[in-house]
Specification:
The protein is α+β, with helices and mostly antiparallel strands. The chain is 10% helix and 24% strand. The chain starts with a helix and ends in a 16-residue tail after the last strand.
């Protein structure tokens, strides 16, 4: 789905921390925001991220 090399260079746009692939989403290790992957492309927009509460952070 997402190339390991791509994961190494991605960072959370909100807090600039490292991210990992979890359950088909890009997840920030620091703030916990979850960014969707659509058609194999990570959507790394803060307004598209889900928080731990499951709601979009705006």
């Amino acid at each position: 789905m997402i190339n390991e090399e791509l994961l190494k260079i991605l960072a959370c746009p909100f807090c600039k921390s490292d991210v990992v692939l979890e359950n088909g989403k890009i997840v920030c290790l620091k703030c916990g925001r979850k960014y969707p992957i659509k058609d194999g492309i990570p959507i790394m927009l803060i307004e598209e991220a889900e928080t731990d509460e499951g709601k979009n952070k705006k």
